[in-house]
């Protein structure tokens, strides 16, 4: 089970963008990768088509899920996530402050 979801704010733990925060744009659970807005920008060479012009475009590349950590919305710090069961439904919660993450 993945503990990250789309639109979660995460911080990068390793690599050239270490320490930067961003919002998750896309999750690829089979490959265990995430795409974070504004992080891990690479140059992509595109060929001209009828709809789009060609050239060199800057795009966000996927990165491993293990290289990012969720930022708690309440305490605004990177925190591990625990799964708690309340009222028969599973909720994600911050391990530091115990606040539920929606």
Describe this structure in words.
The protein starts with 8 loop residues before the first strand and ends with a strand. The protein folds into two domains: 69 residues, SH3 type barrels, CATH 2.30.30.30; 31 residues, no CATH class. The mean pLDDT is 93. Strand 9 and strand 10 form a beta hairpin. The radius of gyration is 17 Å and the shape is elongated. The strands form three sheets. A five-stranded antiparallel beta sheet has the order 6-3-2-1-7, with no helix packed on it. Strands 8-9-10 form a three-stranded antiparallel beta sheet, with no helix packed on it. A two-stranded antiparallel ribbon has the order 4-5. The chain contains no helices and ten strands. It is an all-beta fold and 102 residues long.
Summarize, please.
The protein is an all-beta fold and 102 residues long.
CATH architecture annotation name of the largest domain? Roll
List unreliable stretches of 5+ residues. Answer: none
SS summary, helix count: 0
Termini separation comes to 16 Å
CATH fold group of the largest domain? SH3 type barrels
Strand content of the residues, in percent? over 45%
According to DSSP, the number of beta strands is 10
Please tag this protein with its features.
SH3 type barrels, 2 domains, 46% strand, five-stranded antiparallel sheet, mainly beta, 102 residues, 10 strands, three-stranded antiparallel sheet
Outline the fold blueprint.
Elements: E1 9-12, E2 21-28, E3 33-36, E4 41-46, E5 55-60, E6 63-64, E7 68-70, E8 81-86, E9 89-94, E10 100-101
Antiparallel strand pairs: 1-2, 1-7, 2-3, 3-6, 4-5, 8-9, 9-10
């Amino acid at each position: 089970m993945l503990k990250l979801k789309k639109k979660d704010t995460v911080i990068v733990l390793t690599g050239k963008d270490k320490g930067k925060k961003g919002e998750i744009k896309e999750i690829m659970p089979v490959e265990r990768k995430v795409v974070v807005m504004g992080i891990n920008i690479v140059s992509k060479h595109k060929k001209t088509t009828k709809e789009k012009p060609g050239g060199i475009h800057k795009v966000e590349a996927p990165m491993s899920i293990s290289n990012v950590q969720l930022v708690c919305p309440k305490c605004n710090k990177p925190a591990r996530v625990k799964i708690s069961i309340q009222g028969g439904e599973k909720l994600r919660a911050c391990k530091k402050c115990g606040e539920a993450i929606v």
